[in-house]
Amino acid sequence: MFEPQHVSELLRERLRRAAAAARQVTVAGPVLGVAELLSRFGVAQVELRVEALELIGEREHNAQVPDRFVPDRTVNVWRKDYTVAVPFEGDPQIVRALLSSCTHAPTWGVRDAELRATFTTEPQTPPEQLRAKIDARVTDAAEHLAHGRHALAKYRDDLMQVVTSVVAQMGSAHEAGERQREGLGLPIRLAPQPVPSTPAPAQPPVQRVPSAQSEDELDALFERVVAAMREIGHELEAFTGLTTHLQREEHTRDVLIVCLKSAVPECVFTAETLHGQGKNDIHVRHNDRVVGVIELKNWSSEQNFKDGVDQLLSYLTYRDTRAAIVLLIRNERVSTVIAKTKQWLLEHTNCVDQDMPDGLWRSNFHYHATGDPAQPIKLVYLPFTFTTSATGASTTRGLSAGITTQ
Q1: Is residue 286 part of a domain?
Q2: Measured on CA atoms in the order 366, 368, 369, 370, is the torsion positive or negative?
Q3: CA distance 82 to 319
Q4: Can you tell me the distance from the alpha carbon of 333 to that of 405, in angstroms, rounded to the nearest whole number?
Q5: Does 327 lie in the same domain as 267?
Q6: Distance from C-alpha of 306 to C-alpha of 12, rounded to nearest angstrom
Q7: Is the same domain home to 329 and 378?
Q8: Total domain count for the chain?
Q9: Rounded Cα distance, 353 and 345, in Å
Q10: In terms of residue numbers, what domain contains 68?
Q11: What residues contact 26, with CB distance under 8 A and at least 6 apart?
Q12: Which residues of the chain have pLDDT under 70?
């Protein structure tokens, strides 16, 4: 596939700068940090709005051209210039780089959010012939821009992986440093602080969760993980600029893991961990005990959701009693989807609930292990709504593909 070398170099440089900036993200605010980086270094899709082509200027002038009958002599002739403009969507720098390989005359210039070119012709040229030439050049420009979509899509995937992995590495390094300092076993002398003019209110001591040894303590840790995950979900839902780039489940998973490591440092969060009958999306442990298993699913259809529930249950061994399924809903009738999926969870053969659980943004279900009704499983359902209120007939602004229904 055609991919201009200069565009690749431009995107590689942006990726390098994004990785450098990611190393400055503090462990205290990874959600905001990742959102800011993706908004800062992300690139919008490039699209030429051919249907909005318009004439923005014309000029008649006298030009000197070679005489066809006498060598080495020029003659004056009348020419007419037509300047046309085609609006586009996307980064002007990317558009300019893609069009630099478009060598047909006249060449296109980028001004603000428009492509402009000037066509010079004889006044006697039939208008349909001139229009055909203009249309051919516009089509040529559109094809050059279309060829860059593959490179832009790959860049967006690479950007998400670079940002989330670098931020995760920085968080892991911070945690390792904390454990190293604590392992030294040395008293810490704090630098003297200036006495404030008014006494500061006493801060409550930091409560650390002790090493979990019982199921009750593991339940408490799992509840902290779920509560943190719901809070992170609220943060993500507020950043449509970030969630636009989180199209793949693994992208959202990586952001969740980065944030969960800071929110619940007592636990270890790993991705694609082999446990049970497959690789868990997010596997949560404390010391050598399993705290819970989390499965992420993009909403697409009833069968896909039900398969995701069965997939999650297959990851649980006999001693695993805590699990969560996170549904990522985009551009849908959110309330309808949540109501349907809760009903399907209630109708599952492993569900022992009798009533529909309350709550729109979190639901708790009581399940049992497959093949052993005496072994209880706590299943938490968390829907994340990566959409906006622009879902009426009046507008679809902000939604990449309008509204779809299942």
Answers
A1: yes
A2: negative
A3: 76
A4: 7
A5: yes
A6: 40
A7: yes
A8: 3
A9: 10
A10: 47-127
A11: 33
A12: 1-5, 25-33, 35, 39, 167, 170-171, 189-213, 240-241, 332, 388-406
Look at residue 31 in the predicted model and tell me its pLDDT. 59
Burial per residue of 122-143, b for 16 or more beta-carbon CB atoms within 10 angstroms, e otherwise: eeeeeeeeeeeebeebbeebbe
What span, in angstroms and rounded, lies between the C-alpha atoms of 264 and 209? 10
Q: Which residues lie closer than 8 Å to 229 by C-beta, 6 or more apart?
A: 256, 260, 294, 324, 326, 382
pLDDT of residue 138: 94
How many CB atoms are located within 10 Å of the residue 25 CB?
Answer: 21
Q: Is residue 203 part of a domain?
A: no
Do 154 and 24 have their domain in common?
Answer: yes
* Residues 397 and 312 grouped into a single domain: yes
Q: How far is 173 from 169, CA to CA, in rounded Å?
A: 6
- Let me know if 281 is exposed, middle or buried by CB neighbors in 10 A (0-12, 13-18, 19+): buried
- DSSP 8-state class, residue 275: E
Same domain, 55 and 34: no
Per DSSP, the three-state class of 387 is coil
CA 161 to CA 254: how far, in whole Å?
Answer: 8
Question: Residue 82 falls within a domain, yes or no?
Answer: yes
Residue at 236: amino acid letter = L
pLDDT given at position 97: 86
For 353, list phi and psi in degrees, rounded to 5. -70, 155
- Whether 272 and 382 map to the same domain: the answer is yes
Lookup result for tokens 């404390």 = 286
Amino acid at 107: T
User: Do 366 and 258 share a domain, yes or no?
Assistant: yes
Q: Does residue 110 share a domain with residue 92? A: yes
For residue 384, CA distances in Å to 234, 282, 330 come to 8, 16, 9
CA distances from 87 to 28, 76, 82, 358, 374 (A): 42, 35, 17, 50, 65
Cα separation of 301 and 351, whole Å? 21
Distance CA 158, CA 251 (A): 10
DSSP structural state of residue 364: E
Q: Does residue 218 lie within any of the structural domains?
A: yes
